[in-house]
Sequence to fold (426 residues):
Amino acid sequence: MEYRRIKGTRDILPEEGLIRKRIFSIAENLFLTFGFLPISTPVFEQTELFVRGIGEASDIVQKEMYTFLDRSNRSLTLRPEGTAPVVRAYIENNLSSFRFPSKLFYIMPMYRYERPQKGRLREFWQIGVEVFGAPGPDVDSEVIFLMVEYFKKLGLKNFTTEINTIGCRKCRPLFLDKLVEFLNEHSEDLCSDCRKRIDLNPLRVFDCKNERCITLLKDAPKVSESVCEECLLHFEGVMNHLRMLNVDFEVNPFLVRGLDYYEKTTFEVKSPLLGAQSAIGGGGRYDPLVKECGGEDTPGLGFAIGVERLLMQLEEEGIVPQIEIGTDVYIVSYRGLETKAFEVANQLRKIGIKTEYDYLKRSMKAQFKQADKLGAKVSVIVAPEEHERNLVKLRNMITGEENLVSYDEVVGLIKTMVEKVDERCQ
Ligand SMILES: [Zn+2]
Ligand SMILES: [Zn+2]
Fold:
């Protein structure tokens, strides 16, 4: 084999494709109920959008972007996350005039040059939502509720919801001063990455996976202890609304999230089953971002769910949705009568019945074998003797029952048979 897929990418094969289709449609239906409308953005954007929108100092911009020059020497980047492009689209298309506040959702692939490991790929999918123009804590809680509801709808049980406040433009600088002071005092005990973060992006030390750093940072100043009155009230509002919605949550004072533009509320849904990659989804409020990207000062917030992690979690919990890859009807035809099979098959498909027939002029035996393999509920047998009398044989593959019917009735009868079998199977 000469060609192989690129490291960190995978092929989504039919069975998984159907499972994804299912979990996407559950998401879409739920999001629509909450008033979110779909949006898609291009796979690549101007590099500057991500540098600006995610933050120069973030890990994504520093070391994970797929950036390249196109043939006109423009610097482009493959979308590493969904928020910045959706913000760009919101501003560029003046979506606020269409509906304000605006609630949007997306299901899109993302690209990051990360070290591939379990649950971490270079091409991965995210399901996300963004809300523009709603400043109150009720919306934060609604967005968290929406994510939790989605996981519950999929049947997940083994997860926890963590929330935190990381302050705002006004109060965070004070906290950062305290944190930097603490980090400088202990810089010898920090890992080399964290030492770099002191100057570059001190909040990110809380994402460090190094055991020594984690232990040390337990004594670090907590952002929630130095936030301003406004941030505190907002956070209390979020918690109160979450209680009204009966969402179980824990406050994790160290939950800062990786992206630079978050402020006030951050949240994550984690699973103990996923090891180091424990977050299935997360998000937060990013009030400064729309303005930062060139729009009017508009509050924003959202979340993103990692589809591959979600699939891992479904598997861990043993609740991967059951999908059907088979066919409803298989048409078996004698040599010379293939055209009749072709005709009936396409009549049935037209009315929404999954139908297959033999493309390869195989023997009757082989055709029946194929019908079994595809799990056909009904097979149609086109045989010369019956065909001359304008008849065809139907076999109920579950009961083995057979009857002869005319071509005029065949479509209607099969429809009823398939529906009956479906009922029995449910
Ligand atoms: Zn504040
Ligand atoms: Zn560290």
